[in-house]
Amino acid sequence: MIRNILLVTWRHLSRHKTYTALNVLGLALGIASFVLIGGYTRFERSFDRMHAPNIYRVESRFYRGNDMTDDWPTSTNGYAPAIKDNLSGIASYTRINWYNSERVVRYGEVKFREEHVCYADSNFFSFFAYPLLKGDPATVLREVNTIVLSASAARKYFGQADPMGRILDVSTEAGTLHCAVTGVFKDIPSNSTMQFSFLISWATTPEWLKRFWYMHESYTFVQLTPGADIHAIEAGFPAVAERYKTGPALKDLRWAIHLVPLPDIHLNPAKSYEIEVKGNRFAIDLLDVIAYLILLIACVNYINLATTKALDRAREVGIRKVSGALPAFLVAQFLAESAGIFLCAAFLALPVVAFSGPWLVEHFGVSGFLFDWMVVLRIAVLLTVAALASGIYPALVLVRLQPAIVLKGRFTFSARGVRMRKAMVAFQFGASLVLIAGTIAVYRQMDFMSRQNTGVRLAQTVVVKAPGAGSDLNHKMPDAKTAFLALPGVISVTASGAVPGKEVATFGANRRYGAPKSDERLYEMLRVDHDFIDAYGLQLVAGRGFDITRPGDSTGVVLNESAVRQFGFASPAAAVGQKVWLETIDSRPDVVLGVVRDYHQQSLQKPFTPIVLCMDPKLGWVPVKYFSIKIASTDAPALLKPVWDRFFPESSFDFFYLDDFYSRQYRQEIQFSRTILVFSSLAILIACMGLLGLTAYTTARRTKEIGVRKVLGASVRHILGLLTWDVVRLILWCSLGALPLAFLVIRRWLDGYAFRAPLTWWQWVVPVVVLVFIALGTTGWLSFRAAVARPVDSLKEE
Fold it and tell me: Which residues contact 128 (CB under 8 A, 6 or more apart)?
């Protein structure tokens, strides 16, 4: 029996090559798309799941009454021990301090600027599951002036030599640390939110900073005891904080915490002060939906084609039933054919995935998540369910046929069967409409962001990172600027604490002069020099900028419009000449010299933030981190490096082009738009393949009808309208349900952008028009060939 089923299955599939090819190719593309999208979404959801359970990040929240004024992912160094000592349910904690973590590291003549050189608690490697290749997790970060580095960093500085016990020189704010290497850890996996190459022992931290409560620069993690009440811990913290926040800054606010599960961090919305590159939970969920839609569309194609061919199989089924075939045997036969098609599709999908996998790795950094045993099991289950679901309906339709009716040639589709087939085609059209509308919305938003005026000049600007500690930057900076300006092709030079495309990330609790302490709010403090406003082309809307000929300007500030509103000034003009108290300066206020128009310090995904441009020498804690050099030369490194080496020989020369750096903020959005375009196109292609097969078959079944109509005087135009109107009408009906759904999805996605492209009427009409043209283009040739065929060819045997 099994041999017979397999033999009949092979004969059927090989006899109907076009039918088989359309089904196999459509299903193979659907399976490959499902695997590729699933690989990416699984990777995005896998972040930090390698660690022990029940780990939470302690995030800071500030409230004025019931209104939350600020929400940061960081905390102070004092939070962790205070929580452990005063609240129940905390098994252990660890901290990693990211403050000014970009440092110059040197070993002999080898020196590099490293992005994340952090301080970490002694139990860091016992708390987290980052494996050590050398050293003991319990002791590697115990002693003062000890450092642990990644395997890649060890090779970079020491080659093949054993790094253990060797001394690395690390620049800090206070000077240079000489740290002994006590361990080497395996390179941090790409699905870790924290990415670092060097960790210095917490014992090396200055004593005053180890439990300091007024610098929210650390990530604090706690592991809760089983059954611990998270809400009770969060509710108990404000009372604990009241005993520790003895300083004047933010004293009138209620300090609170929010415990965030470690695996949730990556896909949560981005906040200020976050170090890691965030994912987008809604985009990931949307891609998962698209993956299932594509697979479902491929299965619907098979069901449609299989049921449409029921007329061809009807006599075969009737003869089998008359010959004594049992219904179970017939169902098994058709399920075997369905399974055969799905198996062929699965094997064809393998090379597609293998060919496309490197593209996924290159564009998204995904590795090791396309195939593992869970993936194989998941695909096997899905394919089994899909094969059963796709094969059972056509099988039941055919098995229920009455042999007497079939053998007399009176079998036709029931109205219910026709409605079912149209419903499945409608589903494909509806899904395609949503995908087309989504693709248009994504590309409109990308175009909107690329065309939007940022309010700042980025072109022809080379940004050089400021030297590390010990370079005597404040004294050397004026002479270095003069030397840079003397170079041919250098237009302007300015120094600042941040550049456009980079979060300012230095906050001060400030208020208007004469206002009570309760009016303090947080502002981004951006250290600049006299040339910053002109160099970046910031537009003054009131007052003036810093003037190098006026020494008193060093104790003045320039505000952006958002800062003017937060300070409570009536207008930019009203703010000029007024005074403000800046945090850590208690002896005198600073004068507002001018107001610049709000500009996009970061991407359009972020709203405008209150920024204070300052030069006050008493704000030593607000650093200078960058030189911005506007240059006409194309060979910037060769031109600038000799001057740099002359003034800052102890520091590496690290630079980037500002326009490229600024555009990098949109990398994820661009990747997402490309992904949506590729997989939406695949979904539409698969739907069109099914529509092509369906049209070919139904047109063939209506050949005699078309011949009769032509004999009775029907024109080619009339026949074409008859064959295509059903498709067009179905698309129009689908749009009534699909477009409102697309609108809701697109609005939800756009909510993640502070500045977004407006929704217009035409972007809802275009998907319908595009789908109509695609459908007509798919079916047009077959319909036209049927319409112009000679009636005698179809009626001569009647």
Answer: 51, 52, 94, 221
Distance between CA atoms of 408 and 201, rounded to whole angstroms?
89
* Residue 394 Rama label (left phi>0; alpha psi -120 to 50; beta): alpha
Q: Are residues 591 and 711 in the same domain?
A: no
Residue whose C-alpha is closest to residue 102's, from 275, 271, 279: 275
Confidence (pLDDT) at 391: 67
Q: 497-530: per-residue pLDDT in tens? A: 999 998 898 888 899 998 988 888 889 999 999 9
- Low-confidence spans in the chain with pLDDT less than 50: 798
For the stretch 367-379, pLDDT in tens is 555 555 666 677 6
Quote the CA–CA distance of 270 and 606 in Å, as a whole number.
9
Helices (H) and strands (E) in the chain, counts: 23, 24
User: Could you give the CA distance from residue 161 to residue 144 in angstroms, rounded to a whole number?
Assistant: 24
What CA–CA distance (Å, rounded) separates 195 from 768?
45
Q: Find, among 142, 153, 160, the residue nearest to 198 by Cα.
A: 153
Query: Is 649 within the bounds of a domain?
Result: yes
Alpha-carbon distance 96 to 212, whole Å? 14
Distance CA 119, CA 603 (A): 30
Domain boundary among 267, 291, 316: 267
How far CA 45 is from CA of 81, 292, 411, in Å, comes to 31, 17, 52
CB atoms within 10 A of CB 465: 18
Question: 695: Cβ–Cβ under 8 A, 6 or more apart, which residues?
Answer: 778, 779, 782, 783
Q: Which residues on adjacent β-strands are paired with residue 57?
A: 221, 260
- State how far the Cα of 151 lies from the Cα of 771, in Å rounded to an integer: 53
547: its two tokens: 């003037």
Number of domains in the chain: 3
For residues 633 and 734, membership in a common domain is answered with no
Residue ending a domain, among 243, 267, 291, is 267
Residues 418 and 317 in one domain: yes
With vertex at residue 575, the alpha carbon angle to CA 569 and CA 578, rounded to the nearest 5 degrees, is 110
Which pair of tokens denotes residue 663? 């555009």
Domain shared by 503 and 390, yes or no: no
| H/E segment holding residue 117 | strand 117-120
Question: 286 and 178: one domain?
Answer: no
Q: Which two tokens stand for residue 374?
A: 């869970």
Closest CA to 132 of 94, 95, 187, 93: 187
Question: Do residues 299 and 403 share a domain?
Answer: yes
User: Coil, helix or strand for 55?
Assistant: strand
Does residue 276 belong to any structural domain of this protein? no
CA 14 – CA 3 distance, rounded (Å): 16
The answer to whether residues 592 and 646 belong to one domain is: yes
3-class secondary-structure state, position 563: helix
User: Domain of 334?
Assistant: 1-43+281-450+665-796
Q: Are residues 233 and 308 in the same domain?
A: no
**pTM to 2 decimals?**
0.83
Q: Is residue 49 part of a domain?
A: no
Residue 274 lies in a domain: no
**Start-end of H helices in 87-229:** 124-127, 151-158
Tokens representing 759 are 């929704």
The β-bridge relationship of strands 540-543 and 507-512 is unpaired
